[in-house]
Design a protein that fits this description.
The two termini are 45 Å apart. The longest helix is centred in the middle third of the chain and has 36 residues, at 318-353. The strands form two sheets. Strands 1, 2, 3, 5, 6 and 9 form a six-stranded mixed sheet that branches. This protein has a three-stranded antiparallel sheet with strand order 4-8-7, with no helix packed on it. Helices cover 53% and strands 8% of the residues. The protein has helices at 3-10, 16-24, 27-37, 55-76, 81-92, 100-113, 116-127, 270-300, 318-353, 360-388, 390-394, 400-407, 417-421, 425-435, 450-453, 472-483, 486-498, 503-508, 511-534, 540-560, 562-567, 573-590, 594-599, 605-608, 619-628, 639-645, and strands at residues 133-136, 151-155, 160-164, 172-173, 183-192, 195-205, 218-221, 234-237, 241-244. Strand 2 and strand 3 form a beta hairpin. It is built from 26 helices and nine strands. By secondary structure, the protein is of the alpha+beta class. The chain is globular and about 90 Å long. It binds ligand LV4UQ37V and flavin-adenine dinucleotide (FAD). Residues 85, 89, 96, 100-101, 104, 135, 137-138, 143-146, 176, 266, 269, 272-273, 275, 278, 281-282, 285, 360-361, 364, 413-415, 419, 423, 425 line the site of ligand LV4UQ37V. Ligand LV4UQ37V is lined by residues 85, 89, 96, 100-101, 104, 135, 137-138, 143-146, 176, 266, 269, 272-273, 275, 278, 281-282, 285, 360-361, 364, 413-415, 419, 423, 425. Its cofactor is FAD.
Length: 646
């Protein structure tokens, strides 16, 4: 064990194990997660570092691992969805798998949209993996749902739907598992009796069940990408492909072609809401991994000098702390927000299953906004962590390049982030309702007292300062008032309308304000949820260290967005000047606990897969060892010498 890292652990002021329990949701859950993690010792999961393999080898290795995972899940009798998720995220490490979409989109779509008869037919096939599914929605030319071109036309004479991609732009593009899957949930515009009824989901068989040969359908892999090398993102062109009427999910077409309206057309989009909710938790996980790597490495790396003494640990440099500790605070904040998002998703979808759709718009808005907010922040954060590791952060052995390449598409898939932030219609609607005197409930209730607060551009000197920067509840309050930026967005729309612009143009001309309002709303939610969580934590040592992190998270956010807070008169200029001073104090308070705080995330070394983030801190000898395994070192003289240089 590296002596620096040993010393760091001795300095901790709290019980790391107890903090792990809080993050997992209780000691039982930690115990179970650790039991599941023992699978990492299984030699069947031994594999070559994917960084040393070609794309085709990576795909093959990933498929082998996926198949092994399925067999082991059966062998160990793991069937609880949360446990399957935990098991898979342990085994998968930092990479995705081509069968991932079967689990996260195909199966959930079947569970939520099959009727009884369909469940009886499809679920046994899909849960036994005879049917391997993908989710084919996006097209070469479009992702906007109303703009999708693939059609499903009902033919009452044969009781079939005819699926067709009429143009190049209508070819399905990006769905994972182009080579792996034999079925797809295809999203297509439904036509019956000559009328279009919008987007609906259909189960389409793509390949022969025994030979895996494609049916008369063009299907394949779209080629190498920025990352996702294990995943065969695919294309799919349907040329008048016929499927039985029973393959339409939720069965909205009667045998005579009559269309039966669903309770809400948006239920078809349910799987996206599910994944967006999951991505909040994934952001927390990846932020936590990146911080673990960068902070452990910074504790063992020594460089240059502060005083004329031996080289200090780079974690002692104030600038290094300023790079990493706000991200550490973010990882904790997002962990609690991830827990909230999962609970909220299951609570509201439970109500939806009982026929109560009243909270569906809020679930959509919150999951879309928090997905965008947390993935954007994490995306930037991983890169900061990588750079904070200097040159070694650029080596694939650090895992940080892979974490970035695998994570960055979360800002794009399941709804491009700007587009998701623009789903703020809900915020603007709520604002208008509150302004009309309606009492809002839940997370939007802060808009109720807007009329009294009138948060908008004012000279700071004209307002009393509301905030004690050392008081977390005051900071939450000021984020809440800043979130009232939605007022500016609503006003911008109003002004545009007054210029006789159409509603659509008024919306587009206010889009920057709308995205800002959405961002401020999400930021408020994160600060509030982090602060609320503190009241549940009884252990005084842990409460103290997490309060320090929450303060850092809140103040750092204010420093980054100081213009908003000053403009709204929520803080005075002298207070704004105090914030960097307080931030520096908080960095010093966090410093002795930094390694313990990342240890509490409890990532086994095999899950981190990072030489820099090793628990024992023995970085250098293992970097050397890793490099020697590079395929270029397989021979002392590379064949290129004989071919070209000699
Ligand atoms: C630790 C956990 C690990 C978990 C790991 C998970 C990792 C996953 C790895 C998998 C890898 C990759 C998977 C990627 C899969 C995909 O990307 S699938 C494709 C996803 N595509 C999209 O997301 C498309 C984005 N676009 C849209 O959703 C819509 O076009 C958009 C919402 C932008 C607009 O919707 P439209 O219906 O076309 O248009 P509008 O008329 O504007 O909307 C009408 C009203 O409906 C409301 N709405 C929209 N969506 C929903 C919804 N989902 N639920 C409820 N309500 C919705 C919208 O707000 C409008 O409301 P209003 O009329 O204003 O009241
Ligand atoms: C790794 C990966 C895996 C994927 N897996 C799947 C899958 O399994 N199944 C599937 O169906 N799809 C999948 N996708 C596709 C993914 O869902 C889409 O790429 C995503 O929804 C974004 O759509 P787009 O690519 O059309 O981007 P675009 O919408 O074309 O975005 C391009 C730019 O235009 C801007 N823009 C677009 N519309 C607006 C607007 N209304 N207002 C303001 N700005 C706008 C965006 O902000 C962005 O800057 C995957 C994508 C990736 C990268």
């Amino acid at each position: 064990m590296n002596p620096d890292i040993v010393k760091e652990r001795q300095n901790a002021s709290f019980d790391v194990q107890k903090l792990t329990y809080i993050l997992d949701g209780g000691p039982e859950k930690t115990k179970r997660r650790r039991e599941i993690s023992l699978v990492l010792n299984d030699p069947d999961f031994d594999e070559e570092d994917p960084n040393f393999l070609s794309r085709s080898e990576r795909y093959e290795q990933a498929v082998r691992k996926s198949a092994q995972m399925i067999l082991k899940l059966r062998e160990y009798g793991i069937s609880d969805p949360a446990e399957i998720n935990c098991y898979k995220s342990v085994v998968r490490g930092n990479f995705h798998e081509s069968l991932g979409l079967h689990y996260v989109m195909f199966l959930p779509t079947l569970y939520s949209q099959c009727d009884q008869e369909q469940s009886k037919k499809w679920l046994p096939l899909a849960t036994s993996f005879e049917v391997l599914g993908t989710y084919a929605q996006t097209e070469l030319g479009h992702t906007h749902l109303r703009g999708l071109e693939t059609t499903a036309t009902f033919d009452p004479t044969t009781q079939e739907f005819v699926l067709n991609s009429p143009t190049v732009t209508s070819i399905k593009w990006w769905p994972g598992a182009g080579k792996t899957s034999n079925h797809a949930v295809v999203l297509a515009q439904l036509y019956t009796r000559g009328k279009c009824h919008g987007l609906h989901a259909f189960i389409v068989q793509l390949r022969h069940m025994d030979t895996h040969e494609p049916l008369p359908i063009l299907v394949g892999d779209i080629g190498p990408k920025f990352g996702f090398s294990e995943v065969d993102n695919g294309f799919l062109k349907l040329d008048h492909v016929r499927i039985p009427r029973e393959n339409m999910l939720m069965k909205h077409v009667e045998p005579d072609g009559r269309y039966v309206k669903p309770a809400s057309a948006k239920l078809t989009y349910g799987t996206m809401v599910f994944i967006r909710s999951l991505l909040v938790g994934l952001s927390a996980l990846v932020m936590a991994k990146s911080c673990t790597i960068a902070i452990r490495y910074s504790a063992v790396r020594h460089q240059s000098e502060i005083r004329s003494e031996p080289e200090p640990q780079i974690l002692d440099y104030q600038t290094q702390q300023y790079k990493l500790f706000p991200l550490l605070a973010t990882a904790y904040a997002f962990s609690f927000v991830g827990q909230y998002m999962t609970e909220t998703y299951y609570r509201i979808s439970g109500d939806i299953n009982q026929g109560d759709l009243s909270e569906l718009p809020e679930l959509h808005a919150v999951s879309a906004g928090l997905k965008a907010f947390t993935t954007w922040t994490t995306n930037t954060g991983i890169e900061v962590c990588r750079m904070s590791c200097g040159g070694h952060g650029y080596s694939r052995s650090s895992a940080l390049p892979d974490l970035y390449a695998e994570f960055t598409p979360t800002c794009t898939y399941e709804g491009e982030n700007t587009v998701m932030m623009l789903q703020t219609a809900y915020l603007v609607k709520s604002y208008r309702q509150a302004k009309a005197g309606e009492q809002l409930r839940g997370i939007m209730s802060y808009l109720n007292d807007m009329e009294q607060r009138h948060v908008r551009a004012h000279p700071a000197s004209a307002r009393p300062a509301l905030v004690d920067i050392n008081d977390l509840s005051d900071l939450v309050e000021s984020y809440k008032l800043r979130a009232a930026l939605v007022e500016s967005a609503a006003k911008s729309i109003q002004q545009e309308l007054q210029k006789r612009r159409s509603h659509e143009d008024a919306w587009n001309n206010s889009a920057i304000d709308l995205v800002k309002a959405s961002d401020a709303h999400c930021h408020y939610m994160v600060v509030k949820l982090f602060t609320d969580k503190l009241s549940e934590i009884g252990d005084p040592d842990i409460n103290l260290v997490l309060t320090t992190l929450a303060q850092l998270y809140a103040l750092h956010g204010i420093a980054l967005n100081s213009g908003d807070f000053l403009q709204a008169g929520l803080l005075t200029v002298p207070q704004m000047q105090q914030i960097p001073v307080r931030i520096k104090e908080l960095l010093c308070l966090i410093r002795p606990n930094a390694v313990a705080l990342v240890d509490a995330f409890d990532f086994p070394d095999k899950v981190l897969s990072s030489v820099l983030g090793r628990y024992d801190g023995n970085v250098y000898e293992n970097l050397f060892e890793w490099a020697r395994r590079s395929p270029l070192n397989a021979t002392e003289v590379h064949e290129s010498f004989h071919k070209y240089l000699k």
